[in-house]
Amino acid sequence: MQTEPQDHLFTKQNTCAVNLKVNGEDKKLFILPWVSLLDGLRDHLHLTGTKKGCDHGQCGACTVICDGKRILSCLTLAVMKNGSEITTVEGVAQGDNLHPIQQAFIDHDAFQCGYCTPGQICSAIGLIKEGKANSREEVKELMSGNLCRCGANVGIIDAIMQVKDGGSGE
Amino acid sequence: MNNFEYQQATTSVEAINLIENHDGSRFLAGGTNLIDLWKYNITNPTELIDINRIAELSEIRELENGGLRLGAGFKNADTAYHPVVEQKYPLLSKAILAGASAQIRNMASNGGNLLQRTRCYYFYDPEVPCNKRVPGSGCPAKEGYNRIHAILGASEHCIAVFPSDMCVALTALDAVVNVAGPEGNRSINFADFHRLPDDRPDLDNNLKPHELIVSIDLPEKGFAANYSYLKLRDRHSYAFALVSVATALELDGDTIKEARIALGGVAHKPWRSAEAEDFLRGKIANAESFALAADIILSGATGYGHNDFKIKLAKRAIVRNGLMALNPESQLPGAQPSA
Amino acid sequence: MDLNKTVGQPISRLEGKLKVTGVAKYAAEYEVDDLLHGYVVSSPITKGKILNIDISKALRIPGVKDVLSHENRTKLAWFDLQYTDMDAPPGTVFKPLYDENILYNGQPIALVVAEDFETARYASTQIIFEFQQETFETNLRNNLDKARPAKKGFATALKPPPPPPTGDFENAFENAACKVEAEFQHGTEHHNPIELFATTTVYEGKGKLTIYDKTQGTINNQLYVANIFGLHYKDVRVLAPFVGGAFGSGLRPQYQLFLCVMAALHLKRNVRVVLDRKQMFSFSHRPPAIQKMRFGSDINGKITALGHSAFAETSNFEDYTEPTANWSHKLYPSPNTLFEHNLVPLDVYTPMDMRAPGGSTALHAIECTMDELAHQLKIDPLELRLINYSEMDPSSKKPYTSKALRACYLEAAEKFGWSNRNPEPRAMKRGNKLVGFGMATGIWDAFQFPARVEAMITKDGRMVLNNATTDIGTGTLTVMTQIAADELGLSLEEVDFQYGDSKKPFSMFQGGSAITSSTGVAIVVAAKALRKKLLRKAAEMDASPFKKAKEDEVIFSAGKMHLKDQPEVFISLKEIIASNKGKAIKTTNLGKPHMLKLRKYSLATHSASFVEVEVDQDLGTVTVTRAVTAVAAGKIINPKTAKSQISGSMVWGISKALHEETIMDDHLGKYINANLGEYHIPVHADINQLDVIFADEKDDLINEIGTKGVGEIGLVGMPAAISNAIFNATGKRIYKLPIHFDELI
């Protein structure tokens, strides 16, 4: 659909100040309202661990944890999350100590190309925190929003089951 | 794809005032559908009014009449996992959890779920005609690939289906939608909320301009003893329904006192048949009764080629889901057919 | 050298930590100063001409730098040959923004370049095009009258046409005691790696470019860019250390590379171009195919006639071929054969290799036809394969360098519990589910390309290796490190395999399951040369005990060189380098297939897949409840990453059988489900137990390390095994993939 160029929208008045706490650090973004949280993280904060796979909420690669819940950063405008706490894959480990899910992913060879991996990991952490998945079947169902084109599905679910049952998923 | 201004509203009144004063503005809640449509250049808002911080929309509370009020801004996942919903309205819980993915359910609002647009391929492609997107431009789905399209209630102008799972359960449960608007507040019975395409497929529902969904009321009766949601699709999760069925039964021994059957994935709105439900009243709850009811529900169904299978599939799904409702524990994650 | 062997050990991916922490950077993720962002505009029409482009509105948008199209593009290479890449099929290469002609829907027709991504994306909607549309043809079946054999060209070497007929097929088929005639149909599939195709071009000035690109071939893309834009190849550096999946789509340079480089040169700026998901459906794909099968046997199941005629889509400008009709006779002897592979040119982009190209399509048809033959003969499907088992390659009449397919059959059947199968369809039930068992054979090439490796020992006693290959998720880094570590008796931590960079010594693109054998052999050759140099250096040292030692009289272990017979006599590699004044000792060597020797042999990997499905008896929904695939692929360097290659391929097999299809609307001439919501690949809920077995297959002939490659073989047998299991469950044989569950009710 053709519309008239909206030059007036590229002005300072339309720029939004967005405060985010990302991986424990306060960040301030000055962005136009149409910048997605995903592009805000990747292009503006240079946190490229969060991946763009479809940009339409269909693959889960952009999953981040926002105020304790896993969400899709591609379908979220950054401006909507002013004041929120965001955890990306870069903030999951404690310094050099990998999060148990990260270590389990390595141990179970739960990835190949690695591109869907940050989304799978953030989603898995969200899943364990939600506490709604008891069986392997439920874990699979509740992880189904994260596609893996390499077909590492079995390793991913094995890794999550190990951490979930080991009780160290927080 | 156009650019837009952004404003936050903190009360419903403020939100409605804002939308009235700006042509082309839209309410923004979870964004899971609106942002998607905007990126695809299908919806072109000039201003987004963020309603996520309106406290009154985010409540969930029990009503004096024994029902439950779901705030329009309350999230789908929070609704599905809310203890009262799980205990009293498990059909709704199951239906919500059959839709989308965990992440999207964490984002999507209850009000927004009602306002989802169709997933018709042609609607989603701004380069091709579509009467729903550009009235009068045509409907390539009729002659094209229509595996996912409607078998009931379609018109010559549009054969798209409404994609929600949650709304199939809300239809079966006789929910009521409470809206606020410039002309005041009103309530709409769920059956009257969405509409069939007729000659205005661009209109999905009967909301008036600038009206805001405030909440959804569930009546007292939740059918927690005998219910089931079944969803049939091309993969086991994270796909839209080809056919889905919400069944809620009230039984007296083996006899059906009341039956509610709503279908998703088959029409421009969740589909119910009063005639079929009347037929089931007093019948023995078994495959034979459900099959006869299914024949009634699908009596006016028409396929468009690729989706002809939906008629037979829907009938069988109604039977299976009726049997699953007799034994709700037989339901599996992802609303898959019982083992 | 037998101490601390890493080859054969299940080593975790060495880059694992970088991937699970988000540190690994992909093509669109390099932080570059003053970066401009390009957004591609795609053709909304399928065939015709661009009559006019009005970019004035787009140019007025603040932040827009330029809009490039065929009207204002920079002067480019003139000859087709200069656009040719290493994987180009015969024909005329597609040249982006070359002229006003539209050859297919989604063709790139302009590039908007702006200060930020969002502005470029917005401006892309503000360009006004005028088109003249022409009629088009996109339907394979409706155009079978145009079928013809493929033109021959460079690519024919890797994809030979089917062998000529043998015996008297028509007569033999007509008179066969048992015969099966069937037609199979496959739709279009797109690779859809989760990483979007992307290029970041750093404009270095003085005609120099550094390019971060999503590709399976750094040198392929380096030469492509240099040839087209008239740059010296040494001034073009293509880097791809991490590739977010490719599956064949990165074997040829894709148009975002071309557009990104053009914009960088035109604007003399750093530029990034990332495709969107819809545009990921606007280049290569697996072609739709129709296959007509005619197999005949005697009453005992011995095959007497093999007929396989394939018709596959190609574009109107290149003749893409995938091997289909070549496979059945490599497995099953038959005195009478008739094989054809014909192309039907349509108004689409040229198809391209997609994981197990040809093999996965052909073996579905071949192995379903075999299953039907077994059913009609009332012979167990596994037994029928064994009746027709051949130790040698019947089509070339050459022996295989190795073939452990029989072990695959037997070990997988045992693990699966095949003996519990009831051959009668619909006979096995579990509650509401019909249960079916199915099996199928897989066969795939065992390619090796020439590769060059630089290897050195540095002053800290570490080994550094350089090769231009990528690691698209296959585990190349880990596997190469293992091979190198064992060759020099080092630990994995002491080896740095550096890759993903066109500046490094030659590697072909990473395709055809070939890189382990290609770069791996080059490492072995280089390591040998390196050991020789180290020995020579050590021998030169004062009072060296190695003065008279020959190459086979020393061993390398734990960072030291020892005399074989007197292991207590040793010198550390560090000391050798110190005696070289601290200068690294290095060598660069070529590894290549032993063509002369191997001409007498046939080379292949094999597999056997066994699948259990549950099909809902009323609703038709299908679940692959478990599957076992046994693979014979020579030596397995790393059983952990190799297993992932196979189980990942098995997921692809499930996807091909039950899920993925790109839907072409022939009225519109375009794909209508060009997104990951409606182009279904399996989700976690679709995947259940997948078991992988590696059959013991020692191969001293094929190459120095005895490897054959595991990237594709795991996919080949799965679609047929699933289809055959569905037949066993339901009695319905579905000839079209993917199988829609509603076809089973």
From TrEMBL, chain B:
Domain FAD-binding PCMH-type residues, every copy: 1-223
Name assigned to this protein: Xanthine dehydrogenase family protein subunit M
Native species: Pedobacter agri
Keywords of this entry: FAD, Flavoprotein
One GO molecular-function entry: FAD binding
Highest taxon above the source species: Bacteria
Family annotation (Pfam families): CO_deh_flav_C, FAD_binding_5
UniProtKB/TrEMBL annotation, chain C:
Identification of the protein by name: Xanthine dehydrogenase family protein molybdopterin-binding subunit
GO molecular function terms noted in the UniProt entry: iron ion binding; oxidoreductase activity
Gene3D superfamilies: Aldehyde oxidase/xanthine dehydrogenase, a/b hammerhead, Aldehyde oxidase/xanthine dehydrogenase, molybdopterin binding domain
InterPro entries named among the record's database cross-references: Ald_Oxase/Xan_DH_a/b, Ald_Oxase/Xan_DH_a/b_sf, Ald_Oxase/xanthine_DH-like, AldOxase/xan_DH_MoCoBD1, AldOxase/xan_DH_MoCoBD2, AldOxase/xan_DH_Mopterin-bd_sf
Species whose genome carries this gene: Pedobacter agri
Organism lineage: Bacteria, Pseudomonadati, Bacteroidota, Sphingobacteriia, Sphingobacteriales
Annotated Pfam families: Ald_Xan_dh_C (PF01315), MoCoBD_1 (PF02738), MoCoBD_2 (PF20256)
Positions of the Aldehyde oxidase/xanthine dehydrogenase a/b hammerhead domain: 21-135
